[in-house]
Amino acid sequence: MAGAVTQSKGGKAAVPVGPRHTGSLSRRMMLIAAGWIIALLLLGGLALDRALTNLLTRQFDEQLEISLNAMVGSSELDPFGEVYFNRILGDQRFLEPNSGYYWQITGGEFVPYLSRSLWDEPIPIREDVNAVEPIFYDAVTLRGEEIRVAQRSTILPGSDVRWQFAVAGSTGELNAQIADIRSIVAWSFAVLGIGLFLMAMAQTWYGLGPLRRVRKAIAKIRSSGNNRVTEPLPLEVQPLVDELNALLAHSELQAEEARRHAGNLAHALKTPLTVVTNAASAKAVDLDELVLREAAAMRRQVDHHLARARAVGRRAVGLSRANVMESAVAVERAVSRLYPDVRFDIAGNSAADVAVERQDLDELLGNLIENAAKYGGGSVFLTVDAEPGAELCAVMVEDDGIGIPEAKRVEIFGRGARLDTEKPGTGLGLAIVRDVAQIYGGSVELSESEDLGGLLIMLRLPRADGGAE
Asked: Alpha carbon of 379 to those of 140, 374, 382, 404: distances in Å?
């Protein structure tokens, strides 16, 4: 299970256990390569074996056909109507008994005319052959010898008898040649398969080398403190390294922001704590009031930094998306209960989405709308996507109050800064809005409203699709 933590014998938590791996990538590649090599070699070997076997058999048949044609061309009839050769066949093997090469002529009621090599044992031929062109088939003699037969029938001049001419050769030599060829093919393909497999192993090892280098670079980052993978890598792996470097840069930014926030918070709390400590040591008369005042100041600082920390944490999650109009309507509904006499108007693009978490967007709009309702004259206008086509989505908040002088518009963003001290508040609203907007890559600007005459606050936030609509 992802994220599980192992327990050591002493009961202390050990290193977190990551997700279980799904097997070796090298092993997968080798198994795929081995499967394809074996399959292709088997298919290729079978095809080559069939082709060579047919070639040797066809050559064997051609030799038999030559002898068969020579028999037919040399055959004549004697005065008694029997067949004889007018010239002796040139192959000496037909004269040697059981030499493996035989011929035979049969027809009608005549005694079969056999080669001396048959030794008075006829060839088991097919009696129903009526073909001028030779046919070829396998047979077995009475002695159990496997032979290949070429047979044709013809009618000799001066005779009405259909004579069957047959030439046979022992397949022992042919089978021996086929066996030799198969042995050569088998060994050749075995050596080829081993060579291809070794080549696939080398290719896999070399091809996955960049991944091993990335792993070593990551291990070096963890052990040596390097913050980037700088080794040049192939094009296929470089995007992964670029994303890794971007993630490392993002993590560094997060860590730096966390350190900065912690330092700012410590610095902000140091002065109130010092004041309280000194007052307590001096046994000041107004100690109670001083403690309450400084505690409120510390609470404002804590709230401010917690808001920033939450925004940074949510931004780190990524893929944030929120609809501005939905958030604005929800915030207006809540603020209107606190200020029932204020008139709120919301207009603009209802489909505008920003790359901000909904909770942070509610806090941003809540601070702006509440400030406008609190310090305005009774009217608040909010325009969603006030700058259509711009890269950032602009949210404009206007009121009909007295506004803020231009000289004070920078000062008002300071933590605890308040121009109207008669109304309750912490003075952190605009500071939080500015900081959270900047965390998400946005901005806040103050100006004067042309329509209402009061303050105009322009909040710009990145669109959820990364660009203008």
From this structure: 115, 10, 10, 16
The answer to whether 334 and 317 are in contact (CB under 8 A) is no
DSSP 8-state code for residue 466: S
For residues 324 and 352, is the Cβ–Cβ distance under 8 A? yes
* pLDDT greater at residue 27 or residue 308: 27
Q: Which of 262-271, 311-320, 440-449 ranks highest by mean pLDDT? A: 440-449
CA distance 105 to 89: 14
Quick check: pTM over 0.85? no
| Residue 268 to residue 415: CA distance in whole angstroms | 10
Q: Which residues of 248-285 are buried (b: 16+ CB within 10 A; e: fewer)?
A: beeeeeeeebeeebeeebeebbeebeebbeebeeeeee
442 near 461, Cβ under 8 Å? yes
Q: Using an 8 Å Cβ cutoff, are 354 and 462 in contact?
A: yes
Per-residue pLDDT of 160-204, as tens digits, reads 888 889 999 999 888 998 999 999 999 999 999 999 999 988 888
Spell out where 93-183 has E strands: 101-106, 113-114, 135-140, 146-155, 162-170
Task: Find how far residue 386's CA is from the centre of its chain.
Answer: 41
CA pair distance 362, 445, nearest whole angstrom: 18
